[in-house]
Amino acid sequence: MEINELKQAFRQAYAHEATDGFFSAGRINLIGEHVDYCGGYVFPCALSFGTYLLMAPNQDRLLRFKSLNMPEIIEVSIDKPFAPLPNRSWVNYPLGCIAQFTKRGITIPQGYDMLIWGNVPAGAGLSSSAALEVVTAYAFNELLNTGYDRTELAKIGQLSEHEYAGVNCGIMDQFASAQGKKDHAIYLNCDTLDFDLVPVKLNGIKVVISNTHSPHHLDSGAYNDRVAQCATALEQLRTVKPELKNLAELTEAEFEKIESAITDPIAHRRARHVVSEGQRTRDAVEALKKGDIAKFGQLMNASHVSLRDDYEVTGLNLDAMAEAAWKVDGVIGSRMSGGGFGGCTVSLVKDEAIEKFKELVGKEYEAKTGIKPDFYVAEISDGARRVF
Ligand code: GLA
Known about the structure:
Elements: H1 3-14, E1 20-29, E2 41-42, E3 44-58, E4 62-67, E5 73-77, H2 92-103, E6 111-118, H3 128-143, H4 150-164, H5 172-179, E7 184-189, E8 195-199, E9 205-211, H6 222-238, H7 252-258, H8 265-289, H9 293-309, H10 315-326, E10 331-337, E11 344-350, H11 354-369, E12 374-377, E13 385-386
Parallel strand pairs: 4-6
Antiparallel strand pairs: 1-3, 1-13, 2-7, 3-6, 4-5, 7-8, 9-11, 9-12, 10-11
Helix pairs in contact: 2-3, 2-4, 3-4, 3-5, 4-5, 6-8, 8-9, 10-11
The protein binds alpha-D-galactopyranose.
């Protein structure tokens, strides 16, 4: 949808003009999966897919939320303390961000009419929720003149997810949405939140996203279970290494020396993934900086295997998609991306192999799962911004 069409939809919904428009991006993670909440490095990029938020003040002391994908307008008073809406309402994502401003002592001075539209494929694990959170945080930061930087806006989005959506996520998705830069991936240290922007305009190679069309269920508890298992592993490792701050800071050699302190076999496997993925991510970014794209690809494949065997977040569909990709000539590397349990894989594919990739992977995936996948060549784009 064009901005003008969105302005028209706003007029139709509210019978007046939108005064301000904002956008924030979905993301794809190249490597560094399920390590952000363990203080590890991640390597995501913002996508051209994302979420738009059009707004105008109203005189009714109400926050009005309208999504173009939903029939109703939902109203929340600014004169009562904010609280999550029941039945997992989608409004909890933006409302949870607005609540973070009031929690920091900032008054919402008036009501706002809001219209939301996103083009991140639903359930694809490309962070449509982070895009919605960050666009809301960005918009209120501008309109209320609060002067938070983009990292703070990412934290506001993450807290909304924790407190209003019940997912104890890391910071990666909101950070990528807020700080994304065209043709760059963000090499982010999730412990310190220091980051580097690394160019990913790869010569003759594209980032291809394959949508399994099996929705990921991030709120299904399996994600929070993983977060808790890693916390258990960290606690037990600290009995023998009290100075240990994060799981992901261990090298594989250091882990081997102390891993027997983890008594629960599941927590042990989860920790082994976090440690090996931490190492892979550091190695992969170093390889990319040196131009060793083949090594980067091998590390992507190894990441998928570890997420499958040690972290158990892939499942049949993501495995079928990655395995099909690994067989295609011209594929540098392929792995699941995001929370897992469905969603998308990310692959690096040589330009001349992209059509073959879509054909062969599409055929094999459909034969194995009965589902027709979708493929998108990623456009790596800027993150949160004002659009008018
Ligand atoms: C989801 C979470 C992120 C991160 C990924 C896995 O996308 O929101 O914080 O943990 O899963 O890497």
